[in-house]
Design a protein that fits this description.
The complex is a heterodimer of chains A (about 400) and B (about 210). By secondary structure, chain A is an alpha/beta fold. Chain A is built from ten helices and 14 strands. Chain A has a domain of about 260 residues: 3-Layer(aba) Sandwich (Rossmann fold). In chain A, the strands form four sheets. In chain A, strands 1-4-8-5-11-12-13-14 form an eight-stranded mixed beta sheet, sandwiched between helices. In chain A, strands 2-3 form a two-stranded antiparallel sheet. Chain A has a two-stranded parallel sheet with strand order 6-7. In chain A, strand 2 and strand 3 form a beta hairpin. In chain A, helix 1 packs across helix 2 and helix 3 packs antiparallel against helix 7. Chain A is globular, with a radius of gyration of 20 Å. Chain B is of the alpha/beta class and about 210 residues long. Helix content of chain B is about 35%, strand content about 25%. In chain B, helix 6 links the parallel strand 4 and strand 5. The longest helix of chain B is centred in the middle third of the chain and has 11 residues. The termini of chain B are far apart. The chains are: A alpha/beta (about 400), B alpha/beta (about 210). At the A-B interface, helix 9, strand 14 and helix 10 of A face helix 4 and strand 3 of B.
Chain lengths: ~400, ~210
């Protein structure tokens, strides 16, 4: 996902938030991973917004996408240049209303924004894990989030939402801990990563691996594989936009020049944009973490988790009420993939709504201010909450 | 868009009749449910478990915003995913005349629902007949207000046609309401005498023949 949010036009904000940390799975009680390996201790960085009510029935869990973090909305300090990544959706009176609901967002296991990942210190060696960090899955990420909710004393989640890889975690939650999830809003996501999506991720990973600075993942005390990581990010950004979005945003316009340079400096605005996004990304993201979370997304296939190996069977365990949302111009997780999950939910007799939102910005549409999206989410969550009360 | 704004509003006359045929606490699917007027009424007045199918995004969004369960999609495709007898009632309100393959759709509706409610504008109404006879033009009426080249109503049928259709296809008509009302009217009246000539709409409760 991209970094669009620089300011919030409505001016409404949840205000100051703090990043908190929860550590569990201390040896010898490490967490068992899907791969069969054990990991511990595990730290999860998280933020909470709004207030938990007395009945503890107003909890909304937000799951972030590939390169997101726990900072979903608000500011860390008054001098912060920009708010959290979904500030247009989460806040007072917004789609996810922090005046009514208690919002939790945590950084995924394997990430690099405060949760345990390959850049964390391996307690056995006293050095960063690097490639010694075990591969984690979407299921492992969800298992760690469940541990956090147990720690916070929360047994029921009113609603959970997330786009892209966040949506995969939403779906995983619904089949892994079905009794905890009352409703779920998977956005711009899929039941299983397509060959197309895996292909882009693989090219991005190879860009990192081909950077000599990557050094088999051992770069923490030397030069960073910034070139590879920025190219990986450039590839990602292409997949988050759309033909139309690029045509409108850049066209064939040149950047800071009247004519072609007749060399490889970069002539076009689209080139300049991608280079800028790549350069900005390396300041905040760990290359190994990028390898791990993209792999987790690639491994995701909900249809293989049941005994029958079908989408219908996967959702046979789910109990939640669903609102599935896709976006017309999203070609990374196209609408047919959302329809596949809707079909499987219908066949299980689950309560499911589906809307394909008209949006021209490609996969990133779920992150951008969109009144229709905000209304869909607020109307849905409110109706689930009203049924409880 | 607020929930309360709809509570006190009277429902369209034809929808009132449909609602009166639906038992409380039942499972209802509305095909081509629009902005969910009927489903919202049924959910809150009769505590039904509602599902809607609607093609147009803005209408789907309006439904979901009201708290209704609605799937955006084509009714002919969406209906196939449901199991036999998945619903107590399947409602197709003022849409039969816009369906490409009514025979197949009605068959599917009878498969997924124990009872099916269908309504349509009556093409046998005297005003329709008179227009064609006197002016020689394709009729335009308050119930069928389109020019021939822009009308979504591709399957014009009369009340007599529907009764004949029931016999030929082999489903039972459990209830029939032939009424005089307009497309958006909150009021109307039953037409018992010569309905094929005098009623603007027909509403039918039908079922498979073996389940009377």
């Amino acid at each position: 996902m991209s970094e669009y949010i620089t300011h919030e036009p409505s001016g409404r904000s949840v205000g100051r938030v703090d990043k908190k940390y929860f550590t569990f799975a201390e040896p010898p009680n490490e967490m068992m991973l899907d791969s069969g390996r054990r990991l511990g201790p595990i730290t999860i960085a998280y933020e909470t917004l709004g207030a938990l009510n007395a009945k503890k029935n107003n909890v909304i869990l937000v799951l972030h996408a590939l390169t997101g973090d726990s900072h979903v909305a608000g500011h860390y300090s008054e001098n912060d240049a920009k708010p959290g990544w979904w500030d247009n959706m989460v806040g007072p009176g917004k789609g996810i209303d922090t005046d009514k609901y208690f919002v939790i967002c945590s950084n995924v296991l394997g990430g690099c924004m405060g949760s345990t990942g390959p850049a964390s210190i391996n307690p056995e060696t006293g050095k960063p894990y690097g490639l010694d960090f075990p591969l984690v899955t979407i299921g492992d990420m969800v298992r760690a989030q469940k541990a956090l909710l147990d720690h916070l004393g929360i047994q029921r989640i009113l609603s959970m939402t997330g786009g892209s890889m966040g949506g995969m975690q939403v779906l995983q939650w619904c089949v892994q801990y079905p009794e905890m999830v009352q409703s779920a809003i998977p956005l711009a996501t899929t039941l299983r990563h397509s060959a197309l999506a895996i292909a882009f991720n693989e090219v991005a990973r190879q860009a990192i691996i081909a950077d000599p600075n990557w050094n088999n993942g051992n770069y923490y005390d030397g030069p960073q594989p910034n070139l590879g990581l920025s190219v990986a990010r450039m590839i990602g950004h292409i997949t988050y936009l759309s033909d139309e979005a690029m045509r409108r945003k850049f066209g064939r316009r040149l950047q800071d020049r009247e004519d072609f340079s007749f060399n490889f400096d970069g002539d076009f605005q689209v080139e300049s944009y991608l280079r800028y996004q790549g350069a900005k990304f390396v300041e905040r993201f760990d290359a190994n973490s990028f390898l791990y979370v993209t792999k987790a997304a690639d491994y995701f296939d909900l249809t293989q988790q049941g005994s029958q190996a079908s989408a219908v069977d996967a959702f046979s365990r789910a109990l939640a009420r669903f609102l599935v949302i896709s976006f017309t111009s999203d070609w990374l997780y196209p609408t047919y993939q959302s329809r596949d999950m809707v079909k499987a939910m219908k066949k299980n007799g689950l309560n499911v709504s589906f809307c394909e939102v008209e949006a021209e910005w490609g996969h990133d549409a779920f992150l951008l201010p969109n009144e229709r999206l905000s209304h869909l989410i607020s109307g849905f969550i409110d109706s689930v909450y009203e049924q409880l009360t | 868009m607020s929930m309360s704004s709809l509570h006190n509003t009277a429902v369209r006359y034809d929808l009132q009749i449909i609602a009166s045929w639906i038992s409380p606490d039942s499972k209802v699917i509305g095909l081509g449910c629009g902005e969910g007027e009927l489903l919202y009424y049924l959910k809150h007045q009769k505590q039904v478990k509602e599902t809607g199918v609607e093609l147009i995004e803005s209408r789907v969004a309006e439904c979901i915003n009201k708290g209704l369960t609605v799937i955006q999609g084509d009714i002919n495709a969406e209906i196939q995913d449901y199991a036999d007898d998945a619903f107590d009632y399947v409602v197709l309100s003022q849409t039969l005349q816009q369906v490409y393959d009514p025979l197949r759709l009605v068959g599917e509706m009878l498969r997924i629902g124990r009872k099916v409610i269908v309504s349509f504008p009556n093409f046998g109404h005297w005003f329709v007949r008179l227009q064609l006879l006197l002016t020689g033009h394709a009729p335009i009426t308050p119930q069928l207000p389109y020019q021939w080249y822009e009308t979504p109503n591709i399957r014009v049928l009369s009340i007599k046609d529907f009764r004949k259709f029931a016999k030929e296809v082999g489903f039972s008509i459990l209830k029939e309401a032939t009424i005089n009302t307009d497309r958006e009217d909150k009021t109307g009246n039953y037409v018992a005498f010569m309905p094929n000539l005098r009623a603007t709409y027909g509403i039918y409760l039908i079922s498979r023949s073996n389940t009377k």
